[in-house]
Amino acid sequence: MGLSMDGSEDEIWCPDISYRYTGLAIREYLMIMGEGSPYDFYQCFKRIKPTTSYKNIAYYFYLLHRAGLIEIVRKEPMSKKGGFSKTIYRIVPGRENELGWLHPQQIFYPETKLGAKRYKKQRGW
């Protein structure tokens, strides 16, 4: 983990995030912090939206990277033996105000904008 404002390693310092929409919250977090990992963002965002899961956050980072809104800065090795490396991302310069931040899944899956009930009705389920 990172350092908190008082220098302890017990928890990471989290900026004030004003959005509950995951994509916009990631953008705000990266704009304040400059760069960050999905796990560090998850640690902060679960304070605002306790029902969120790390799997959901990792998927959003995947979609935002695939959409070209964020880029990989580096990979840091994990401190535990046999762990996964930590991927650090930042916003691609000039992409801060793209519409894809609100609903990045709609870039690749346009039918998600219909919502579950309308999607099922359209498909005849």
Integer tally of domains: 1
The main sheet orders its strands as: 1-2
First-last Cα distance: 46 Å
Radius of gyration over C-alpha positions, nearest whole angstrom: 16 Å
Residues in helices, as a percent range: 25-40%
Q: Which band does the percent of strand residues land in? A: 5-15%
Number of helices: 5
User: Any guess at the CATH architecture?
Assistant: Orthogonal Bundle
CATH homology-level superfamily: Winged helix-like DNA-binding domain superfamily/Winged helix DNA-binding domain
Spans with pLDDT under 50 lasting ≥5 residues?
1-9
Q: Any idea what the shape is?
A: globular
Largest sheet: 2 strands, antiparallel
Structural class: alpha+beta
Task: Just give the CATH class.
Answer: Mainly Alpha
The total count of strands amounts to 2
CATH topology (level 3) name: Arc Repressor Mutant, subunit A
- Pattern of helices and strands: HHHEEHH
Q: What is the typical, i.e. mean, pLDDT?
A: 82
Question: Key features?
Answer:
125 residues, alpha+beta, Arc Repressor Mutant, subunit A, two-stranded antiparallel ribbon, disordered N terminus
